[in-house]
Amino acid sequence: MSVTLDDYYMKELGVVAGADLSIRVFGSVAAAPWCWPIPSVQWPNLAASLVPAVVEGATWLESLLDLQVLAEHLESQRWFSAEVDREGAALLGRMESAGIQTLYRSPGFGAPRAGKPRPDKVMALSYCYELLSDWYRAVEAWNDYLRTFENAPADHLARLQHLESKRGAVQQ
Predict the structure, then answer these.
(1) Which of 17, 105, 122, 146 is the most exposed place for a label (fewest CB within 10 A)?
(2) What residues does 83 pair with on adjacent strands?
């Protein structure tokens, strides 16, 4: 289940808020079963058992259609937490114990991220605040996004200047 912004931002952002059905059903992606249901045993009851979670998920998605609520949701996910690190380690452990190999791991793949800004969330948050004309918070979120780079691309710095000019115009 996922939420994106309009088509213009979607190309750059992709999903800005998402929820995995397995988290709603099992409490954790790592705790979810890692096999396809056995048709004769589990399949007939699978759809019926998922209906409450799908209804709950649809209600959650609908609530995020309000930009202010979406911004509040993104704020709650602004920073990586120790729980994210633990969940990632648990998933990786289950994959490795199942014989799944990761062919490529980016630099810092296994490094703890707790307390660091989540790039996709702060980027989306900046756009969300821009749509709400909250220029101060748009700049703040974009600065957090830029902190995730060693050398930010020129167009990202240009966006910061644009946001700061909007904020400055409002303050005058």
Answers:
(1) 105
(2) none
